[in-house]
Write a structure and sequence with these properties.
Low-confidence stretches: none
Order of helices and strands: EEEHEHEHEEEHHHHEHEH
CATH architecture of the largest domain: 2-Layer Sandwich
Number of helices: 9
Shape: globular
Radius of gyration: 20 Å
Distance between the termini: 24 Å
CATH superfamily of the largest domain: ATPase, nucleotide binding domain
Number of strands: 10
Structural class: alpha/beta
CATH class of the largest domain: Alpha Beta
Bound molecules: 5'-O-[(R)-(carboxyoxy)(hydroxy)phosphoryl]adenosine, zinc ion
Helix content: 25-40%
Number of domains: 2
Largest sheet: 5 strands, mixed
C-alpha cells in the first residue's frame, strides 16, 4: 500500500510517500524559520507558511518518491492534536487530494504517530511483536506515557500536568538568552559537562494536584523547574558563558531525570520502551534511557534522528497499519486540536 502523508500540526510543513508502512520513498520536512525572533511558534505565521508551502512540498514529495500520482492508494493527514489554524491547512488539503484522487482519507493522531515513528527504523521489530510496550511521546507540545499491552491498545498512564518537556527546555533557553528552539542549544552546551542532579527540583507532582485520574507518581510537572531557574538567574545572574552553560546542563539534567524516573516507575512488565518526539533527540536523555533499559532488561526503541521531530512519514506509516479513522467517516470530520490518543 502506498500512502501519501501530510503533517502540519505545528511549525513543520511536511509531506511523505511511504510504501507498506515501512519503506519511506520520499519525505520532505520544512521547518519554518519565521518564528525564531519571537522565541516560540506564532500560530498565525505558522498557518500562513503552511498555506504557502504545502502544495509545493506535496508535489515535491510525490515527484521524489518515483511513483506516479495514480499509484497513491490513500491520503493520511494529522487531524490533531496541534495548533488549530495549522492543522486546518493540512487536513483541508488532504481532504481535497483524497477526493481528487478518489482514494481513502485517513485521519491520524499526531501523538500516536510520534510513538509509531520508532518503527520507521529498518532495524526495529514488527510493531505487533514489540509488546508489551511502554511509550513516551516527548516534544515541545506533549509529554505523555502510554502502556501498550497489545498493538493498537493504547492506555495513557502518565503525562505532564503543565508544560511539556520541550517547552520547559525552550523557555529555559529563552530565559538564559540562548535562542530558539532551546532544546538543541541546551543539549549542545551541556555535552561534556558533569551536571548536578540536585541543582533543580525534580518535576514531581504533589499529591492532590489534578492528574485526570492518573497516578501522580507517573505524572510530571515542569513549571516549578522554570520558576526555580528564574529565581536563580534573578538572585545570582551567571557571571560568564561557562556559568550559563553549567546552569543549562543542570537544568537539562532535571528534565532528563524526571523523564527517566517516570519511565522506570511505569515500565511494569513492558519488554520494550519506545520514545519519540523532538526531545528524544536529546543526547543525555538517550544515554540515560539506554542505561535504564540495560538495567531493566528492556529493549529501547528510539526513532531515527530524522523521524524524531514532526514529519509526515510517521503519519503515512501509521495509516498503513490500519490505525486512524478512514473513509467514509473521515470526510465528515473536522480537525481535533485536543485529540487524545
Ligand atoms: O516533535 P517536535 O519537532 O515538535 C512538537 O511536536 O513539539 O519537537 C520540538 C521540541 C522543541 O521543544 C525542541 O526544543 C525539542 O523538541 N528538541 C530538543 C532537541 N531537539 C529538539 N530537546 C532536547 N534536546 C534536543 N537535542
Ligand atoms: Zn510533534
Amino acid at each position: 500500500m502506498i500512502v501519501l502523508g501530510i503533517e502540519t500540526s505545528c511549525d513543520e510543513t511536511s509531506a511523505a510517500v511511504v510504501r507498506d508502512g515501512r519503506d519511506v520513498l520520499a519525505s520532505i520536512v520544512h521547518t519554518q524559520q519565521q518564528h525564531k525572533p519571537y522565541g516560540g511558534v506564532v500560530p498565525e505565521i505558522a498557518s500562513r507558511c503552511h498555506i504557502e508551502l504545502l502544495p509545493g512540498i506535496v508535489d515535491e514529495a510525490v515527484a521524489a518518491s518515483g511513483v506516479p500520482w495514480s499509484a497513491i492508494e490513500a491520503v493520511a493527514a494529522t487531524r490533531g492534536p496541534g495548533l488549530a489554524s495549522s492543522l486546518l491547512v493540512g487536513w483541508s488539503m488532504a481532504k481535497g487530494l483524497a477526493r481528487r484522487l478518489d482514494v481513502p482519507l485517513i485521519a491520524i493522531n499526531h501523538t500516536e504517530a510520534h510513538i509509531h515513528s520508532v518503527f520507521l527504523d529498518p532495524a526495529a521489530p514488527d510493531p505487533h511483536e514489540a509488546v508489551p510496550m511502554l511509550a513516551l511521546a516527548v516534544s515541545g507540545g506533549h509529554t505523555s506515557l502510554f502502556r501498550i499491552p497489545r498493538y493498537g491498545e493504547i492506555a495513557l498512564v502518565g503525562r505532564t500536568v503543565d508544560d511539556a518537556a520541550g517547552e520547559a527546555l525552550d523557555k529555559a533557553a529563552k530565559l538564559l538568552g540562548l535562542g530558539y528552539p532551546g532544546g538543541p542549544i541546551i543539549d549542545k552546551l551541556s555535552r561534556g559537562r558533569v551536571a548536578d542532579p540536585r541543582a533543580f527540583p525534580e518535576g514531581r507532582v504533589r499529591e492532590g494536584v489534578e492528574t485526570g485520574g492518573l497516578r501522580s507518581d507517573l505524572c510530571l510537572s515542569f513549571s516549578g523547574l522554570k520558576t526555580a531557574l528564574l529565581h536563580r538567574v534573578t538572585a545570582q545572574p551567571p557571571a560568564d558563558d561557562d556559568a550559563v552553560a553549567q546552569l543549562a546542563a543542570d537544568y537539562q539534567e532535571a528534565v532528563v531525570q524526571a523523564l527517566v524516573k517516570r519511565c522506570d516507575k511505569a515500565l511494569g512488565d513492558a519488554k520494550y520502551l519506545a520514545v519519540g518526539g523532538g526531545v528524544s533527540l536529546n543526547s543525555r536523555l538517550r544515554v540515560c534511557l539506554a542505561e535504564l533499559c540495560a538495567r531493566r532488561g528492556v529493549s529501547l526503541l528510539l526513532a531515527l534522528p530524522k523521524h524524531c521531530g514532526d514529519n509526515a512519514a510517521m503519519i503515512a506509516a501509521l495509516a498503513a497499519m490500519g490505525r486512524g479513522i478512514t473513509s467514509p467517516e473521515s470526510f465528515a470530520l473536522d480537525i481535533a486540536p485536543s485529540w487524545a490518543v
